[in-house]
Amino acid sequence: MSASVLYDAPGPKAVVRNRIYAVLGSLAILALLAVSIVRLSDKGHLAPEMWDIFNYSGIRQNIADGVVATLKAFGLAAVGSLVLGVLLAVARLSDHKPVRWAATGFIELFRSIPLLITIYAVWVGFLTDYSMWALALGLSIYNGCVQAEVLRAGVNSVPKGQREAAYALGMSKTQVMTSVLMPQAVRAMLPTIISQLVVTLKDTSLGFIILYPELLQTARLIASNTQVNGQYPYVSTIVVIGSIYVAMCLALSGLATWIERRGRRAKTGITMAAAAAPVTAAAPVGTVVGAGAEAPDGPGGTTN
Fold it and tell me: How far is CA 172 from CA 95, 103, 124, 167, in A?
């Protein structure tokens, strides 16, 4: 029997009991899914006509436009949040108290305000006619504060000896941060950074509150304006749009995993130079052994 850091390994009886619980739990979940499917089928939500609406070119084009609008807002928000996160992280790690206090206050303020309120306030107060920029700016502010805390934790995780060694070599604070601390912080916290980017992608759905035509807003319009057999296709629309969200998030996570693996395989270090030819014991004194040496002239080993 082996032990773990968090708990003791279960014994034979516990293993059997856990397997029974797992089987019973799986059966309960399958039963709930079966009941839900039967109820939806009885109400006509799973009828073929409800799914046939996605064969219409107009609806397909609306969904494609919604995906493009979502990716646009996400791209702007991702870049903005990362840039703002780096600036806030550096400011919060500054040796100057006013700068550190200002960054801390900004981070704590916008982390405490609900994201929906931030997006709506930016839209109403500054960018009423530019819903995409309002959504991207609101997402950048909130997620930038979160990314700043992630990067700050990554910088603090770097051993202090590396910072002291960099200062001993005469590097400035800017050089230490950009060349020593921040690259290691990004590599160490890359999974968390990507996880927050996935959250940013999903939070683009909050654009519906400012009437931005992203994917969720498009789904709402499709489901509320299309009637099939006297019913609105909310179930089929939710399933299709939800699957698109899942696919985009999985693609982003897969890209992050590929980047992380590529970074781990990256070759670092200094290439060693080839060793010089060793001097043999049989070589006479005064001779030069190597590629450019000349053979000695005569038995005395002298050269002309």
Answer: 13, 22, 43, 7
Contacts of 148 by beta carbon, 8 Å cutoff, 6+ apart = 84, 85, 86, 87, 88, 89, 92, 103, 107
Q: Mean of the pLDDT values across residues 105-130?
A: 90
Residues 6+ apart with CB under 8 A from 152: 89, 92, 93
Measured N-to-C along each axis, helices 57-92 and 215-225 cross at an angle, to the nearest 10 degrees, of 150
Q: What 8-state DSSP symbol labels residue 169?
A: T
Stretch (H or E) spanning 233 = none
Higher pLDDT, 262 or 217: 217
3-class DSSP assignment, residue 302:
strand
CB within 8 A of 248, min separation 6: which ones?
Answer: 67, 70, 71, 201
| pLDDT tops 80 at residue 10 | no
pTM of the model: 0.73
* DSSP helix/strand/coil, 228: strand
R_g (Cα) of the chain, nearest Å? 31
How far CA 251 is from CA of 23, 246, 262, 289, in Å, comes to: 31, 9, 16, 61
Confidence (pLDDT) at 288: 45
For the stretch 277-294, pLDDT in tens is 554 444 444 444 444 444
